[in-house]
Amino acid sequence: VAAADAGMTVEALLAHSRSTAPVALARQLAMYLAHVGLGLPQAAVAAAFGRDRSTVAHACRRIEELRDATAFDQKVGRLEACLRWAAEA
After folding, report:
1. Which residues make Cβ contacts (< 8 Å) with residue 34, sequence separation at least 6?
2. CA-CA-CA-CA torsion for 6, 43, 54, 4, nearest 10 degrees?
């Protein structure tokens, strides 16, 4: 969902190399959605992304900070709703 929203591939989000800022933000959003939106443990999210659990914790803090902006918060809310819908299907 985060990759599609950002107009990039899932492979770009899962790449182990350092990325451009837009890819990094989309990856952080994907980690946040997996943890908060789907309720997956941070350790499971870290394993799925090939990252350390502390990286997932950092991503979640960063997205929470960005949610102070109304437009970004609304976008994340829409993406969370998409995830909930897909999870129910």
Report:
1. 40, 44, 45, 48
2. 0
Tokens describing residue 19:
């990325």
Q: What is the number of structural domains in the chain?
A: 1
**Residue 14 contacts by C-beta under 8 Å, 6 or more apart in sequence?**
49, 50
Q: Number of C-alpha atoms within 13 angstroms, CB side, residue 18?
A: 0
- CATH number of the domain encompassing residue 46: 1.10.1750.10
- Measure CA 19 to chain center: 15
- Which ranges constitute the DSSP H helices of 1-89? 2-6, 10-14, 21-32, 42-49, 53-66, 70-88
The pTM of the full predicted model, rounded to 2 decimals, is 0.94
Mean pLDDT of residues grouped by 10 in the chain (89 residues)?
95 89 96 95 97 97 98 97 87
Identify the domain containing residue 57 by its residue range: 2-88
